[in-house]
Amino acid sequence: MKYKNSPLYKIELQGISDVLELINYRPRTIESYLQAIFDCCIWLRDTYDISLDDADVTHLRAFLLHLKRSKEDGGLGYAPRSVNLYNCALKKYFRFVLRRLLTNDDLPLCKVDHPLPKVPSKKEVMALILGTENLKHKAELAVAYGAGLRLSEVTTLRFRDISFSDGTVTISEEVSKSRYAGKVELSARLKMILYQYWKECCPSANAEDWLFPGQKEGSHIHKASLSKVFKDRLMELGWEGRGYTFHSLRHAQALHYYQAGADLFQVQQRLRHNSITSTLIYVRLDAKLRERRH
Question: What's residue 138's pLDDT?
Fold first, then answer.
C-alpha cells in the first residue's frame, strides 16, 4: 500500500515531512522516508496492535528484522541498503517528531558490502557510443561519459548548460545529487557530437529548453527512457552479461581520467564528490586492473 493513496497516518507523516523539507532533503528522499514510516506504522498495527508513537526499541528491531529476513524465513528479503533506509527514517521520526533519540546501539545499521563496479574499457565505451545510430541517443550517451554525469543529471540538462564557446557543460546545484555545482570541459569529440545534435535535431531550441526533451511537450526525457537506451545498446552489442549500467559511463570517465594522469583531487572535482573518500574507489579499480595485466 502506497502512503499517498491511503488516508491513514496523515498526521504522523506530515510531521516528519515538514522536518525533512526543512532539512532540505530532496523530494525523492522525502517520499522514500515517508513510505518507510507508513510501512512501519502498518506493520506495528497488524503485528502488535500499537502505534509508532508507542513502539519501543524491541518493536522497531523486530520490524527491521522482518524486512531483512528472507521470504523463506517469513520476512520480506530486503537488501541491506533498503533496510538501512527504513532504519534512518525511523531514527529521524523519533528524533524530530517524538523527540526521543535512537542511536546505532538501539538500531544497528546493516553491514553493506561495497564491491567494485563493473567498468567498460575506453575501447568499449567508444564502440558503445560511436556505434549508436540515433543521433539523440548518441549525444545522451556521449555527454554522460564525456562529462561524467549521473543519469538524473543528463536528463535535466538544458541548452543553457552547454557552452560551445567555452567548451564546457555546467551542472547546477539543484540537479546535482551532491548539491555540488560545477563545470566540466567538453572534449573535442563530445563537442562535435553535441553540436551535430543541436544543428540536426533542434536548431531552433532556446537556452531554457531541455537538451533532451521527452515525448510530452515541455518535459525532459525520463530516466527510465534513458536507461532503456543504454540497455538496448548493450543488447545490440551482445554485452548484456557484462554487468554494465548507465552509471558505468560515469565510472568509466573517472577511471580513464585518472589513468590518463589526473590526480585524485582532479577526479574528485570532475565528479563533484563532496568527500574524496568516494573518489578512492578509482584508485582501487586501477590497482585491480594492473594486477590482472600482470
Answer: 97
